[in-house]
Amino acid sequence: MRDLGRLTVVAPDREMSATSHSITLNRPLRFHRLAANRFSVDGTPADCVILASLRILDGRPDLLVSGINRGKNVGDSVVYSGTLAAAVEGALQGVPSIAVSLEYGEPTDFSPAAQFTAALGRRVLDEGLPPGVVLNVNFPTVWNGRVLLTRQGQKEGRTVLVENLDPRGEQYFWLHEELHGHHESPSEELPADYEVLQSGYASVTPLQVDRTAYRLFKPLSNWTDIFDDYSPARRHEEKDS
């Protein structure tokens, strides 16, 4: 990213996987300057963006790139992703933002993904992104060098608790996810993000901060009788009568 302009790195000082969009409210936040334009934060990825935008940098950055994360963030996992949350926080701050992840694999080579991300970053700098929209980019372990525009997929699975006892006999749990395949609608125009990764392609998925389910407006309009029954005005009328 250095070729695109002045680069500043602000990152959590420890592992922050699956922190989603959590921010630190119940204790003070601290950051440390490790080197020129390199800072660590004792908080979440979203904390890093907030501190960078409001304190560490001289002003709002022109571009935010979160990652490259070691581990893909596709399908339902985007809900838990700290990598994606940092990009979403950037969008909330009015900064064009990209989240980038690379599927687990050995050996891990970030170079091809980094080169494409730099090219994508330049395009975003030139053309921008709509307000409230971020790009979620994922690369397979073995990349065929091609990129496809995708949609967020939906995986079928469940979270289970793996139970055990510690050396003192105290009960503890590990969270674990069991996958049972995928559930997709065949009528979708774009392929799912996880599907293209399985075929060796990288995926670029535009995601948005606005989570409104607009397709439900019409079905839910039939529920207005319930809304009316429990409206403050209706209750006030009933009380007066």
Compact description:
By secondary structure, the protein is of the alpha/beta class. Helices cover 27% and strands 27% of the residues.
Description:
The protein is an alpha/beta fold and 241 residues long. It is built from 7 helices and 10 strands. It has one domain (2-154, 190-212): 3-Layer(aba) Sandwich (Stationary-phase Survival Protein Sure Homolog, Chain: A). It has helices spanning 45-56, 82-92, 111-127, 193-198, 217-220, 224-229, 232-240; strands at 9-12, 31-35, 38-41, 64-70, 97-102, 133-139, 147-149, 155-165, 171-182, 202-208. The strands form 3 sheets. Strands 4-5-6-10-7 form a 5-stranded mixed β-sheet. Strands 1-3-2 form a 3-stranded mixed β-sheet, covered by helices on one side. β2 and β3 (38-41) form a beta hairpin. The longest helix is centred in the middle third of the chain and has 17 residues, at 111-127.
